[in-house]
Amino acid sequence: xxxxxVKNIGRIVGIERRGRLRICGEEMDRLETLDDAWLLCDEGxxxxxxxxxxxxxxxxxxxxxxxxxxxxxxxxxxxxxLVYAGSREQEFLDKIHGLSYEEIARRGGGILNSADLLHNxxxxxxxxxxxxxxxxxxxxxxxxxxxKSGYGLSTEDELKMLRVIRRIRQTTPxxxxxxxxxxxxxxxxxxxxxxxxVDLICREMIPAVATENLAxxxxxxxxxxxxxVEQTARIIQTGARFGMKAKIHANELxxxxxxxxxxEHRALSVDHLERMGEEEIRVLSGSTTMPTMLPxxxxxxxxxxxxxxxxxxxxxxxxxxxxxxxxxxxxxxxxMVMALASxxxxxxxxxxxxxxxxxxxxxxxxxxxxxxxxxxxxANFFLTKPMPSVEYFTxxxxxxxxxxxxxxxxxxxx
Length: 414
Ligand code: NIG
Ligand code: FE
Description:
By secondary structure, this protein is α/β, with parallel strands linked by helices. Helix content is about 35%, strand content about 20%. The strands form 2 sheets. Strands 1, 2, 3, 4, 5, 14, 15 and 16 form an 8-stranded mixed sheet that branches. It has an 8-stranded parallel sheet with strand order 6-7-8-9-10-11-12-13. Helix 6 (about 195-210) packs parallel to helix 7. The longest helix has 18 residues, at about 195-210. Bound molecules: N-(iminomethyl)-L-glutamic acid (NIG) and fe (iii) ion (FE). N-(iminomethyl)-L-glutamic acid binds near residues 326 and 328.
């Protein structure tokens, strides 16, 4: 009997009714909670919850006393590049000394630097490094994570990355989704022959990835200095033929047309969105594509932040993700992401929680089973120290408040 009962929960946060797959517009600020509560899990799913003073007699082997702390659904981080080799603090110094992200990329640094490092790192070592990051994000409350390839940039090295992601998926209790991002940058050998590189992606890489069934999604860095709208369309159409849904890096460096091409091809999400016009918001309004913001990258690169307020106020659902990567966001801390969303983008803590949980799950096609406290959903949640309010969790953003982590109904020692 794998039943566990959590009792003396000061407040359950993020309760949703079944069947609600995303939270839009003004609804995002309405966070459903329950005070003085208990919660029951069976076989890794949430089976019931209620108020302590109405708790029926329940027989279980394991009882967890939450000691008055709060219970939150685990974060669903829908955009990361957490499989990478080494680190890039040299470029961080270059940035301090005045170079921009684009200038570093043009000098052959940036993504190409990570590709060289990855090429010279064994699959085993890559897995070891990535698992350290997985342990780190698990302790910080993440329960579902999307991980991209894109530091391989050759068929062989892209497959190497994706095999590492598959191994992570098989060996952690986190729910993992894999995205093929061969179009992250033009490989060094193809410099000046960008269309030929796109040919390689479409004719060789995508079929190879599909043969081994290594990717759920396909992504393109559709931005100034990277891939054009036409190249993006070609790559995601090819991916679609092999069953991969699109998630696009769009509008980070310029108003790139990335949002439009994503929406037109029914992308699951368009991500970044630091450069947005009215038109982009209008296009998103008629679609099911999830606009996903990565304020950790804007923070690290000193860029302007996405217009979150405008998007939510026009009725859109939005998601927040960490973008955990060595070049623009070397952190997978979703509490920090929520704090930045509140401090810099004027999202309320309630909006940020929805964006980092159920809407993030939706951006991975997972919100039927993850992202909220709902009967029948997978029992992914964490317990906090007792707190005076839900807002305190964002406000005291550096205080280690997460005490215990549960994934698939089992406590994870972190
Ligand atoms: O999402 N924008 C493109 N890709 C990453 C950065 C990757 C890197 O610099 O290594 C991002 O910010
Ligand atoms: Fe990214």
